[in-house]
Every structure is written in C-alpha cells, then in structure tokens.
Amino acid sequence: MRVIVVGTRGSLLALTQTRWAVERLKENWPETEFKIKTIQTKGDRGADPREQNIFVGELEEALRRGEIDIAVHSLKDLPTTQPEGLVIAGVPRRVDPRDVFIGRNSVARMADLPKGARIGTSSVRRRAQLLAWRDDLEIVPLRGNVDSRLKRLVSEDLDGIILAAAGLLRLEMRNRIGEFVDPEILLPAPGQGALALEVREGDDMADELAYSLNHAPTRARVLAERGFLHGLGAGCLAPVGALAQIEDDVLVLDAGVLSLDGKTLIRGEIEGDPEEAWELGLELARDVLEAGGREVLAEAAGN
C-alpha cells in the first residue's frame, strides 16, 4: 500500500492546518496511510519578508522531487502563476477571511483607539487601509508567529494588533479576538482564510485524494480574488485587498489597491457567474488599473 506523504511548514499554525486536512483525508480514505513531513522554508529561516514565495518554494521543490505527495499551503502565500508540473487539486472550505483586531486594556474595539494609537502589523495592505481609515495612527512593524505577535502586544506597549481571523480560529484562540474588522475598513488579502492542496501533475492518486476536500464555492471565491491580483501584475506583498462572496448563485467581488500612505484608494466591484470567477477578477483588475491603480502600484513598488 502506498503511503501518502503530506508536506507542511513546521510552524504551529501550518502544522495545525495540515493535521486538520489529514484528518479529513483519513475520513474520506480510511484505508490509506498518511504521513506528515515538515519542511523548513526560507520564510522559516528568517528570509526578507519582502521576497516572494518564501513560504512555498521548498515545499514545491519537495513535491517535484517526490519527497512529498501533497503540499498544504495557506493559499494567500501562493503566487498566482502556477509552477509547471504542479497543480492545486483541492481548496477546502474557507475559514473566516476577515482580519481581526486585538486590543489592550480598555481598548476592546477599533472605535476605542485613542488618538495616535500604536497598532502592530507588518502588512502593507493593512497599514495602508488603517491609515486610510485614520491617519493619526502609528503603525508599528510586527512579524513572527501568532504567539509572538500576541506577546509583543504587551512587550512593545501597543494599543492593538491586526491578525487574520483564520489563524486564531484554527488555533482555537477565538477568545483572544476583540473584533472582526468590517471589510469596508480592511479588505482581506486575496485568498486569506483558505488552504490549497498542491500535487504533482499526473499523480492521479494524490490528485483524487486532495480533490476530495475541494469546496467549489470557496474555490470560485478565491479564484476571483487571485484573478484580480494576477490581473494587476502584483504579488502577494502588494497593498491589494480583495473579497469575493457568492450570493444567490452570483459571485460578487469587492477589491482595490491603495497607496502606502493610505491617501489614495482605487476600489471597485463586479458580479457575475461563479464559473467565470477568474475572468471576473481579471476584468475588475483592468478597470482598477485604468482608474488610476497602475500609478498607485508603480509608486508602491518604488518604495
């Protein structure tokens, strides 16, 4: 019997996500044996966070070499251009894609923040949107895993931090969440809250296993968001937000780009057939670029 090796990064969140996926696979394929293999990526070794693909490259190389059969990624970390010979076979049901606010002391919600409040985040997307919402905020760089960021909320005397809801929910830390932030204030990163199960092209068994966890509405939503990112020609580190919903069998995509200082926001919306999700994302990207988004992204890339 073939043992299916599932690859993941070694962080607590990555392992938690992968264990969840493997448990679902075991439920669907009880006679198949699965093994989890942890692989250290450039991102885990402290690579410059401004580099692309720092959390996925080593996993994809392990796939190509046959060391693993399925790679489990946070989908928002994946480039929008799929590497030759690899395919995303399954996109499981998405966890809440929104960002969340965690405050200190009496600051339970973002509305409670005092003037000049110090907010921790290293995401240029979050930084730009926070400054667009309130230009008096001081944005403090904040990197590391979920635990270390939560500790720095106190150690660096911050008034609050912004994290992805999905990580806290998967780690069963919902009690730490002060507020789910309205997407009108913080549009999530494209693909945030979703996982991707990647396999080698032509590996029919691994493909079938991974596809058994695929959730079609989630896949359509993230395809639209990633289509928008791809159409912009932007990477996962650009100041870009996107959120797709499916309402009454209609996909609605809300997405935009911002200047790094939050003073310029080019945002749009498009709706259509979920079967055309990728094309809808590309079309909205063209509209946003023509409305001034090209200049905004060029300025951001130069900083």
From TrEMBL:
Note accompanying the cofactor annotation: Binds 1 dipyrromethane group covalently.
Single Gene Ontology MF annotation: hydroxymethylbilane synthase activity
Record keywords, A-Z: Porphyrin biosynthesis, Transferase
Catalytic activity: 4 porphobilinogen + H2O = hydroxymethylbilane + 4 NH4(+)
A biological-process GO annotation: protoporphyrinogen IX biosynthetic process
Organism superkingdom: Bacteria
Cofactor (UniProt): dipyrromethane
Porphobilinogen deaminase C-terminal domain location: 221-289
Recorded metabolic or biological pathway in which this protein acts: Porphyrin-containing compound metabolism; protoporphyrin-IX biosynthesis; coproporphyrinogen-III from 5-aminolevulinate: step 2/4
EC number(s) recorded for this UniProt protein: 2.5.1.61
Residue positions, PTM S-(dipyrrolylmethanemethyl)cysteine: 236
Pfam assignment, any one: Porphobil_deamC
GO (cellular component) term, any one: cytoplasm
UniProt keyword Transferase present: yes
UniProt-listed PANTHER family: PORPHOBILINOGEN DEAMINASE
Chain's role: Tetrapolymerization of the monopyrrole PBG into the hydroxymethylbilane pre-uroporphyrinogen in several discrete steps.
Note, other: The porphobilinogen subunits are added to the dipyrromethane group.
Protein family per UniProt: Belongs to the HMBS family.
Record protein name field: Porphobilinogen deaminase
Name of the coding gene: hemC
